[in-house]
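Re: [ENG-882] Designed sequences occasionally contain unexpected residues at chain ends

Forwarding the minimal case from QA. C-alpha cells:
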C-alpha cells in the first residue's frame, strides 16, 4: 500500500515540472543563441 500512497506525490512533482518546462527550454535556447553569437563574433575578430 505504501507504493500507492507515494504515487500521487510523483504525479504532483511531474505537474510542477511541466509548468516551468517551457520557460527553461526558452532560456536554454536564448543562452545557446547568445553563445553562438559570441563564438561567431570571436571568430570574426580572429580573422581580422
Amino acid at each position: 500500500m505504501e507504493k500507492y500512497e507515494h504515487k500521487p506525490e510523483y504525479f504532483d512533482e511531474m505537474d510542477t515540472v511541466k509548468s516551468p518546462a517551457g520557460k527553461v527550454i526558452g532560456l536554454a535556447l536564448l543562452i545557446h543563441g547568445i553563445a553562438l553569437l559570441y563564438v561567431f563574433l570571436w571568430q570574426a575578430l580572429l580573422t581580422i
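QA comment: On inspection the terminal residues look reasonable. The chain is about 95% helix and 0% strand. Proposing we downgrade this to a documentation issue.
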